[in-house]
Automatic annotation (TrEMBL):
Taxonomic lineage: Eukaryota, Metazoa, Chordata, Craniata, Vertebrata
Record protein name field: Dicarboxylate carrier UCP2
One cellular component term from this protein's GO annotations in UniProt: mitochondrial inner membrane
PANTHER family: MITOCHONDRIAL DICARBOXYLATE CARRIER-RELATED (PTHR45618)
Cellular compartments annotated: Mitochondrion inner membrane
Superkingdom of source: Eukaryota
Amino acid sequence: MVGFRAGDVPPTATVKFIGAGTAACIADLFTFPLDTVKVRLQIQGETKSPVNTGHGPVKYRGVFGTISTMVRVEGPRSLYSGLVAGLQRQMSFASVRIGLYDSVKQFYTKGSDHVGIGSRLMAGCTTGAMAVAVAQPTDVVKVRFQAQISAGANKRYHGTMDAYRTIAKEEGFRGLWKGTGPNITRNAIVNCTELVTYDLIKDALLKSSLMTDDLPCHFTSAFGAGFCTTVIASPVDVVKTRYMNSAPGQYSSALNCAVAMLTKEGPKAFYKGFMPSFLRLGSWNVVMFVTYEQLKRALMAARHNWATPL
């Protein structure tokens, strides 16, 4: 009997769902400090409020400057502040937006073998919006923890569950879904750019026979997708972070937040934290997509071995 290869059989929706969530969590463990640095740089320069008390006197300059300042002032663990909520977010968020992407793409193409750019974009927007609807509370808590100065006794939240309870108590149940609008916009852009660019680069490399469907191809496709995504999504990402981290009443809407940034800090404010954002998203994409591709193959092989009698 010819030996089974995982690539011979398309992965099931369950395999994609589990593989995407697991791969995203692994990627987050490696890149979370860069995500925290990105958040700190994005909120720097914002008017002081009860939410970000302490940010005034602390100056962050660049990726490594921010890391060294945080480690010196708050300790190394501050780089992983909000990790629990971050992993909760990735398990729910990535499972939906990545795990369901191929299935939704097939729905829009109605089973056709030809997949156009329109179908890819529609699939990216749909799964991105679905993922935000499911995972928004975890994203709010993650951002709040990352923005919170860990040193001192004035911490707003003392644990992940405490953060969920405190936000719901002080801001109402809707507070856990604060910033859903800009987050849907941001993730529709990220999802479209990230998944569609990865899809297109990978297809181009395979069709031109420059690479085969293996590790170097996945690495190249993921890194290219990370750069394109950061350039396009950075302005919306900064507004999302500012608005989700804001005190009640600080901004009347996400648009008001964007206008305040533009008038007080200028257009450059929309690209605050660009370098850690690119480093984080680029490395996250590489780890996530490479792990995802390998997990899909391993899970399909395990499924085949389990289903095949000895």
